[in-house]
Amino acid sequence: MLKCHLSKIMGERKLKISDVSRDTGINRGTITRLYNETATRVELEVIDTLCGYFDISVAELFERVSQNNNQKK
């Protein structure tokens, strides 16, 4: 299972979903689903855009965790 750290990253930078959507051109609904961790699929272009916008790696945005006990793999 993948855990998305978008809400944490946005919180640390005091950004709102509307700010990120406006600045990146990514659909607000897509950002909302990533923020709430309800997205089931994401375009690679969206991941690339978010990583560029926040100047982070993919590993900082997503983390693979075990479904059984939510521990890091």
Automatic annotation (TrEMBL):
One Pfam entry name: HTH_26
Domain HTH cro/C1-type: start-end pairs: 6-61
Gene Ontology MF terms: DNA binding
Residues annotated as signal peptide: none
Gene3D superfamilies associated with the record: lambda repressor-like DNA-binding domains
Listed name of the protein: Helix-turn-helix domain protein
